[in-house]
Amino acid sequence: MTDRVNSDTTATRKILRPRRLALLGTVAALGLAVLATAPGSSPFSASSFIAPAQAAETAATPPGFGDLVSKVKPAVISVRVRIDQDNDKSAMLQQNRMDSDEASPFDQFSRQFGFRGPGGMDGMPRQHRQMITGEGSGFFISADGYAVTNNHVVDHAESVQVTMDDGTIYSAKVVGTDPKTDLALIKVEGKKDFPFVKFSDQKPRIGDWVVAVGNPFGLGGTVTAGIVSASGRDIGNGPYDDFIQIDAPINKGNSGGPAFDMNGNVIGVNTAIFSPSGGSVGIGFDIPASTAKLVVAQLKDRGAVTRGWLGVQVQPVTSDIADSLGLKDARGAIVDNPQDGSPAAKAGIEAGDVITAVNGTAIKDSRDLARTIATLAPGTSVKLDVVHKGDSKTVTLALGELPNERQARADEGKSQPDAGMPPRLGLSLAPAGDVQGAGQKGVVVTEVDPQGPAAQRGIQTGDVILNVGGKAVANIGDVRSELAQAKSSGKRSVLLQVRSAQATRFVAVPLA
How confident is the model at residue 331 (pLDDT cuts 50, 70, 90)? Predict the structure, then answer.
């Protein structure tokens, strides 16, 4: 409550300060007029100022959010779940996540969204706890009872209850969930005239007002206000992170609740907070309405979400990778390795290709590519702009369906920050066929100088260098030749394709 009051007070001060200055100017002018027209009267008499001052003060009163809140608040619900610990092992996993959350400043509400139960937080032994309960928030999106909340609020729930703003309690069922975006759709039966709200069709601007409504700490119907403070946030929560950041205070229990614009439309779903202390510090993260609309529509139609699939492992294009490939800009996603039989492999996309655009829209990096493809349905025909060995081309392919057990990776951690390095790699190499058996491609790293540039890049003994500068290598001579070629052509770095036990990746090694 303190956070909201302070936030509202600050906002009021910001609105009132310039108006008070304007009011003082008006009063001064009126005083001069009185002095000029009535020199015998006192310029400070009450009769000269009361009426104008009252009118100006009334005009200076900020409009507030009362009308907006009265319009949208009835559609916001409190969500309460029960998890049978005896029948669902995930209940213990949920509790363990909550217990271990103190060490992480990024507080996804799934770990601390208000679990309560016999012996839950009062020190009683866990073996006596048969049920645990949790509380979150949600909101109706249709008159017939469909409502949105977070996946982690209803994950593995035995039963779900919702409480409306007027105190009415209903049972609900889970229609479908999507763990990758942390969204869930639930359905309340019994009425056809539930109050509901709509998703916004416009992307919010940084600085726009935002009002959050939810059930923090079980205190249903709580309203806080702030502004949109950033967009496009990646907090490492999932492969499709694209959060809106808001500073309206939200806490445990707000999870799954809506954030509204000034038109009463939902711009985002409250999902996570940055919280070194465990409470709100004014940094909250919302799933954008554009993402929620796509996911919810699929959950309503089929109870699950299917996503487009290219079948490539990708990493971002760093400045050194761009230089080694002769690209003007460090943008796009470089393909580590197309998966056998994938749509990308069938279309001729190869390791080292850089995907720069999808259907004419530029791709910023590997994560942007993953998000873009995930918004498209399997079977969709897409055009990819690709840089292949220095030449630009357009590839048309039909997307596959993302298998549940795997997904196109946007591995931001593959490329290490580059610093100036000498041409010497600091490696001892041997043909892979000699070390690993006939038929093996590339050269094996047999020894690494711990002070050398390759070691700083994370290259280790046992790694296999498959190609250098886009050319396949089979022996030490090939490696030396390609390094010399890259240097003589004026390139400041050369690109190595390296296969380790974990994955295949590209590493840009500066030459100057």
Answer: very high
DSSP line for 323-372: HHHT-SSS-SEEEEEEPTTSHHHHTT--TT-EEEEETTEEP-SHHHHHHH
Q: How confident is the model over 271-280, as pLDDT tens digits?
A: 988 877 777 8
Q: What is the DSSP letter of 410?
A: B
Same domain, 281 and 139: yes
Can you tell me the mean pLDDT for 113-121?
34
pLDDT value of position 425: 73
Distance (Å, whole) CA 361 – CA 372: 10
Is the domain of 175 the same as that of 89? yes
Using an 8 Å Cβ cutoff, are 72 and 264 in contact? yes
**Whether residue 321 has pLDDT greater than 70:** yes
Of residues 96 and 171, more confidence is placed in: 171
416 in a structural domain: no
Do 364 and 389 have their domain in common?
yes
Read off the pLDDT band of 19 (50, 70, 90): very low
Phi, psi of 442 (to 5 degrees): 90, -170
> Residue 58 domain-assigned?
yes
Kind plus residue range of the DSSP H or E element containing 18? helix 2-37
Instruction: Enumerate the active-site residues.
Output: 152, 182, 255
Q: What angle do CA 297, 298, 303 make, to 5 degrees?
A: 120
- Total domain count for the chain? 4
Domain endpoint, select from 271, 305, 339: 305
Q: Which domain holds residue 16?
A: 2-62
Residues across the chain: 512
Residue ending a domain, among 401, 417, 452, is 401
Question: Taking the C-alpha atoms of 318, 324, 325 and 328 in order, what is their torsion angle to the nearest 10 degrees?
Answer: 60
pLDDT for 35: 37
Residue 419 or residue 110, greater confidence? 110
In contact, 115 and 156? CB cutoff 8 Å: no
